[in-house]
Amino acid sequence: MGENAATKNHDNHQVFDVSLGIPSKGGSECFDDDGRIKRTGTLWTASAHIITAVIGSGVLSLAWAIAQLGWIAGPAVMFLFSLVTCYTSSLLTDCYRTGDPVSGKRNYTYMDAVRSILGGYKVKACGLIQYLNLCGISVGYTIAASVSMMAIKRSNCFHESGGKNPCHMSSTPYMIMFGVTEILLSQIPDFDQIWWLSIVAAVMSFTYSGIGLGLGIAKVAATGTFKGSLTGISVGTETQAQKIWRSFQALGDIAFAYSYSIVLIEIQDTVKSPPAEAKTMKKATKLSIAITTAFYMLCGCMGYASFGDFAPGNLLTGFGFYNPFWLLDVANAAIVIHLVGAYQVFCQPIFAFIEKWATQRWAESNFITKEFKIPIPGYHPYKLNLFRLVWRTAFVILTTVISMLIPFFNDVMGIMGAFGFWPLTVYFPLEMYIQQKKILKWSTRWICLKMLSMACLLITIVAGAGSIAGVMLDLKVYKPFKTTY
């Protein structure tokens, strides 16, 4: 490909595009050593991206998950997931560069890392799983945002009627509102340009998690008792079969609460160097997971202590808390703002992948590659690309329609967590690490890593089965676009 076409591609895709014959700029003030725009990310922006991705709506289902597992297994499983995620994420950061951790070839995306280290059919398998999972997460976040928007409306309605009006409503208009907002924000071209959105979203995640925690503490203080049992919901409150399936689903919900590895490499690609990107990212990973695990433990445990066997599927929208209603409104508004940002963090890799592929396939098409500069007073001109406008809008519309068809918060969270946890958080990071570090087959370390992978595969299978069973039960009574809540 000629220099002009390569430069054009580079201009359109500053963050994720692989090298397409771009001449090296020698690591100048404006460009990195591989000729791409210089990165400006730091430990703090990377941590904000991770916290935005990790402390998602999954935190709201943790009280329900612990209720299924009980005081012993619930916190233990959560702590185990945090350790596994922290460990495998640390290994994954070493895969950002192939070969030398300082000067080796950069892998701009998760899929690039798999391609350069593992290769073969595993690249296509990784791409399929990663992008399907990202699409699923975008659906889950659309559902969660609509649930929180309905909760604001319902809490006010409930307050005004003195608890007499059941305040049933449809989630469809709220999903459409969320979708329109995401269509606008999706026109932000690249990952490195949404750092401000991640910081706002991270602040919002702490806001609503803190409110949920505070309400839980207040409820426990008011009643003077810690509810719940060592083994979770007892048989009798639900059948033996329901107990098993919901316990499996709880594993999926907890796994979903830690699912961010699928965008770790993309986040790492925003971090400036020196120091080595892996060094910064390891610190960001440990810091972020330590903070989020502390929040998860507090929110999940206090939620279970407050409600016991009757812990709602969504702590702030399940109407476990009714007052103060204005505080619940603040918490749910914070959830919506957070999910607006988190949606972008997870969707930017999909956007970049399709746009890179289209640019390579139709390099001479003006519709694909041409940009129109739109002046913005007091700021840099916005570069409008028609393909980006059409494709990203179509994607958001599609995820919004799917959300309207299956608006089941807990079950969708569980399926997404189960589907993505083993392959993306465990299997590929471990396999790449084994290959990159040339760990001998049948050595003690090799056996330990393989055993960890197999154990996580088993958890994924049972969690997926439980969540799918939950969706099947929901679909028996649900009518698309008609059911109200």
UniProtKB/TrEMBL annotation:
Q: Which residues form the signal peptide?
A: none
Keyword Ribosomal protein listed? The answer is no
Regions that span the bilayer: 43-66, 72-96, 131-152, 194-218, 287-305, 325-346, 389-406, 412-430, 451-473
Amino acid transporter transmembrane domain location, by residue?
A: 40-472
Q: Name one GO molecular function term.
A: amino acid transmembrane transporter activity
Q: Under the cellular component aspect of Gene Ontology, which terms does the record hold? A: membrane; plasma membrane
Q: What biological process terms from GO does the record include?
A: amino acid transmembrane transport
* Keyword Transmembrane helix assigned: yes
Q: What keywords does the record list, in alphabetical order? A: Amino-acid transport, Cell membrane, Membrane, Symport, Transmembrane, Transmembrane helix, Transport
Pfam families attached to this UniProt entry? Aa_trans
Location(s) in or outside the cell = Cell membrane
Q: Which family does it belong to?
A: Belongs to the amino acid/polyamine transporter 2 family. Amino acid/auxin permease (AAAP) (TC 2.A.18.2) subfamily.
Q: What is this protein called?
A: Amino acid permease 2 isoform 1
Phylogenetic classification of the source organism: Eukaryota, Viridiplantae, Streptophyta, Embryophyta, Tracheophyta
